[in-house]
Amino acid sequence: MNEDKNISILTKTNSEMLTFFTNRHKECTDNLEHYKTSLFELNIKLDELNKTKSIYSLNTSSKRDLFTPMPKDKTESGKESKIDEEIVALLNEQRLLSAKISEETSNLKFISRKMKLLKAAELSIKDLSLELEDTKSDLTSLEKETQSLRSELASAKQKNSTSDTITSSESEDSSKKLSEMRDEITKHGKNILKIDAFDKSYMSSMLDRKVKTKLNQSKSKLETVKFLISSDPKRAKQTINELLQDMDGINDDITYLLSKVLYNIDTKKPLMDMLEDFISAKKNAHSDCIIETDYKGLDTSSKTSYIAATSLIHLLDIFTENVFKHSHANRIIIKLSNDNNTLSAYVKDNGTGIPDDYMEKSPWYSSIHKANEIIYLLDGKLDIKGSHENGTLVTFSYPI
Description:
- Helix content is 71%, strand content 10%.
- With 400 residues, it is an alpha+beta fold.
């Protein structure tokens, strides 16, 4: 299949690029360590020369008459000039080494970003390949079921050739419906694979930019502190304070990323408590928007399944965040009910509404497309209506 060939090409290309950047990373790391060592030894040599120069730079001798200053000895003057020449040469070499260190550091940062993205792409390709195999397997099973149904229809037609119970038109309608069903499953399967790959790539990029890059920067600062702690304690203390601030920033970034994957959902709690925690967090984050809830129709006596509960929180998060980001609403009404083991949700806002053709014109990776696929997997229904005058109304339901 073309899909297998494309996956193979992507895997090979990604592997070769990753190998190239890995070798380049090792080369840059070795160069950087060499330059840093050379610079450290050069700084020591400069320090020793400056101390030696200060001895030859004295204009008087303590052994001579203090009231009769004498010019410096010609030999000492010559040695001082030679030291000056060595210092100038070392300073030029120092500038060159500093430039090389800066260049290699920039190269390492660039290569690290590329390696992170390539590793994330490698994982996504593997997941995509596995999920593609599952989809192919499902399609094969569906084809076998379709073939079996066609055989049964053909057999029934032979046995009942004198009757009109199974007409040719009914057989065609059945085949058409099966074909449409297969096309629909394939379409949703591809959408789910693409959205899953996008989510993984997005999260990998965010982790690289918000966590990995900052950790590397902090590591560089720690190396600087190691050098400064003996030579410049004041500057070392200042750098440590900067590191502490960086750690606070990284912690905030990790908290933000955890919220993106709904890490704070506690599935050990009853559904009602989970909902209260979720709404309370939204109210704290968006105090300018009134959120009204009605759970009167929700059955709290029976336990809700893990998938049904987490999916409900995930869907409510998607639709409320869309309100906060796009609708400019200042009021949201959320109603939930459970009728014959079917969970139904009603989310209404007083914002600017949503276009009727949003699903066709919005990007395939948008959050509402994601919600649509989640509800499809749950065998549920989704309906979104909106206007500038009445805001947006979202209703969805699925069996629990």
